[in-house]
Amino acid sequence: MLLDLGVKRGDVVGIYMGMVPEAVIAMLACARIGATHNVVFGGFSADAVAERMNDSGAVVLITQDGAWRRGAIVELKQAADAAVKRCPKIRHMVVVKRTAQAVKMKSGRDHWWHELLSAAASTHRAKGFGSEHPLFILYTSGSTGKPKGILHTTGGYLTQVAWTAKHVFDLRDTDVYFCTADIGWITGHSYIVYGPLANGATVLMYEGAPMHPEPDRLWTMVERHGATIFYTAPTAIRAFMKSGEQWPARHDLSSLRLLGTVGEPINPEAWMWYQAVIGGGRCPVVDTWWQTETGAIMVAPLPGATTTLPGTATQPLPGIIVDVVRKDGTSCAPNEGGLLVVQHPWPSMLRTVFGDPARYRSTYWSDFPKRGSHPGWYFTGDGARKDKQGNIWIMGRVDDVVNVSGHRLGTAEVESALVSHRSVAEAAVVARPDEIKGQALVAFVTLKQGASRSNLPRLAEELRAHVGTEIGHIAKPDAVRFAEALPKTRSGKIMRRLLRELVSGANVTGDTTTLEDMSVLEQLRDED
Ligand code: 7RM
User: Out of 185-194, 200-209, 465-474, which region has the weakest mean confidence (pLDDT)?
Assistant: First the structure.
């Protein structure tokens, strides 16, 4: 189909779809003909699509009429139309029929997937390409407003995603592997599509929302399909904890034999809950640290070989050389907080920021540059500490690491302490400038269903005391603010930058295009 539309090797093809099989088929079709795919998450707006298509120079956009989400239609074709108006290089749109409501088709430009397919040749011989041939561009947000087009290539990327999928998930032929990520994120690329499929795995892919129509939606599917491996994010685990154990308890989850997490530090409480309630105490939990930029898992236990510990992704995988260092590049002492660097190239590393090699250098390679005999290190942007056993404890992005009265604290640690309190569902901790301490902590907290809201000032005091007991008085937040919800990106990451701007008395000025629900921010601001 793509060849019939004149797509050539090296052309960029946009994919703006929900979680339908055709999305994976489209990605693999690009790979077969040497086109570079640029998947944009189906929850993004027309503006976000246009920006990403134009930045990458895409010539074709594959989309669908609509996607199903909580029983309603997400109008993808409509949004794609609005986007493509501003994308002069896009020559064709291919539209999968999924929801079948009426959509406008522009003749000559727009084509139905099923019509192109019935006209296309029924066989195609996959072409071979060099290992450094571009495979995909995936946009990710940085500290500035403009998203970065992370470029991955073919050989090294596939080598590392295939190896890590096989060994970190202990993937076997009999497994039914279920990863809840969306293919619009790197986790979907590497651990729904390329890693498992390169191993010939059976992959379970789910189109809808995790809590719809009820909070046991995913457990229904684990039971029905006999899923054996389950990979999700801490934010989802905390949401399941919040809705209560009765939901997983309704289902036979005994098919599960391995659980994974990714995306943010997992607080030990959530790790224990996941292990006990979902894993029935039988399943190893693999906490996997990696990034869009690293392409594949870098730090994680090898089940059966590595001793796991709640809250740490444990040790770098074989061949991955990381360290926690000070700003001057010297190694930190055990448990001393520092910067997580990768000191040796790895197969699936990003090759550049598409169209902006200067930004690639300055973002990743300027903190520990190549100089004299120093080879130059990759800076992850994450703060971490390494314990005596060599386990890596991620403390969050460095902008989430704060200094209170000369003490270096990971806001993630304070959050983890807060979440270990019986009333707390989720917490986000940020710093505001403080004349005496340098920085002071403000905690935003959402409460579990059923937690008493009758005396919030007393609960705030209790939470401060609780953090005092868990970490030490230095970590006690100066203020605890109760919220209905926390501002999150569509992939579930708490946008601490917005909270930081809010508590610093500054206007929230930065980019908010990745915020899932704008009203959450308004609500917090009104209470200010
Ligand atoms: C895979 C993914 C990357 C950032 C990374 C960290 C955080 C990811 C973990 C984690 C603690 C983990 N790619 N992060 N995994 N923090 N423990 N297991 O999420 O590009 O979207 O984000 O996510 O800060 O730098 S990403």
Answer: 465-474
